[in-house]
Amino acid sequence: MKTYQLGVMYGDGIGEEVVKATLDVLKAANQMNDLVKLDLEVLPMGLKAIDEFGHPLPEQTKEKLSKKDGWIMGPHDSAAYPDRFNEERNPSGELRHHFDLFANIRPAKSVKGIKSLVNDADLVIYRENTEGYYPDRNMYSGVGEWMVTPDVALSTGVFTRPAIERIARAAFEAAMTRHKQVTIVHKANVIRLGTGLFKEVCLEVAKEYPEVKVNDFHVDAMAAHLVKRISDFDIIVTENMFGDILSDLTGELVGGLGLSPAINANHTQAMAQAVHGSAPDIVGQDIANPVGVMLSTVMLLDWLGKKHQDNHLIDLAKKMEDAILSALEKGKTTPDLGGTESTESFAKVVINLLN
Ligand code: ATP
């Protein structure tokens, strides 16, 4: 029986509640099968890590994560960290940078039983995660933003062929397992060199996948197309900031931030991290929706199962996903989706459905 080593970081705000609910489900699923085992280790990250170890992402956490197959990361409330951490990357940016988690994979799928602004959505955004318009991670050293005078700020955008090639290849590989359609999103009419290179390199990679239908849109037009005809899209590949914005849009269109899952992956490891933040306004009330983290964890297990060609792990992920979706279909939802379940009671519903 294969054992997978997983790290777990609760993080800040609602992290304590939604990650705990996810672990309850994960542990139940783990105990229910004897074909694959998950070894879980909780590691410090966030405000509690500052209190205990003097840093929101202690070195020992990074060191331990380097030996894991993957990990679950709760949200962080970096705005609440002491000023001395202002100049540093936040924990999520640092982990993406440190482990070169170059692909941020964010699906948006309509869920039966959930009221949403659109129907029949089933797409996945492949967001480049290491460069583009994120100056806290697009430099080898230092931060790519400068104040030239108190009234003049410069922010860099960085686009490199190798980084574009690998996210494009990940997107086309995914399209081959789905509906064989990739949409490249850029702004090459204005940002001709930077996002122009993004578009050109994606089109070059497309030649390796002649079966895949390819189209491309400017990011502003794409936002409108998503609102108007989301069901026409399968895989979307785009740079860092465009992907961040479009995935919040698609998440909200299919039912809300609390539902939106994601993983961040390199070629060997992946991190489950829901799209939502630490939601300080609802912390400690047991009303936060744990589905985003739960479905991110499902994505992590499925990704690991496919990477290790382990059908038992893929099955375990599917069982968890079915139980979560079935709970939602039965109207068992937290208040953000109009229901009356608490974070904890939603986890219990899912565990009963797993049984
Ligand atoms: P951050 O900067 O950490 O991303 P933010 O305030 O910009 O934080 P979120 O923390 O995602 O963004 O919260 C936005 C709002 O969405 C919150 O005020 C909260 O009401 C709601 N929200 C976010 N996540 C959830 C969730 N899991 N369950 C219920 N409501 C949520």
Describe the structure concisely for a colleague.
This protein has eleven helices and twelve strands.
If you had to describe this structure to a student in words, what would you say it looks like?
The longest helix has 19 residues, at 311-329. The strands form two sheets. Strands 2-1-3-12-11-4-5-10-8-9 form a ten-stranded mixed β-sheet, with helices on both faces. It contains eleven helices and twelve strands. The chain is an alpha/beta fold and 355 residues long. Helix content is 40%, strand content 18%. The chain is globular and about 55 Å long. Helix 1 links the parallel strand 1 (2-9) and strand 2. The chain starts with a strand and ends with a helix. The structure holds adenosine-5'-triphosphate. The site of adenosine-5'-triphosphate has 16 residues, from loops.
Portion of residues in helices? 40-55%
Number of helices: 11
Which percent band covers the strand fraction?
A: 15-25%
Give, in spatial order, the strands making up the sheet with the most strands. Answer: 2-1-3-12-11-4-5-10-8-9
Helical/strand content category: alpha/beta
| Rg value | 20 Å
Chart the SSEs and their pairings:
Layout: E1 2-9, H1 15-32, E2 36-42, H2 47-53, H3 59-65, E3 70-73, H4 91-98, E4 103-109, E5 122-128, E6 145-149, E7 152-155, H5 161-176, E8 181-186, H6 194-206, E9 213-218, H7 219-229, E10 235-238, H8 240-253, E11 263-265, E12 270-272, H9 291-307, H10 311-329, H11 343-354
Parallel strand pairs: 1-2, 1-3, 3-12, 5-10, 8-9, 8-10
Antiparallel strand pairs: 4-5, 4-11, 6-7, 11-12
Helix pairs in contact: 1-9, 1-11, 5-6, 7-8, 9-10, 10-11
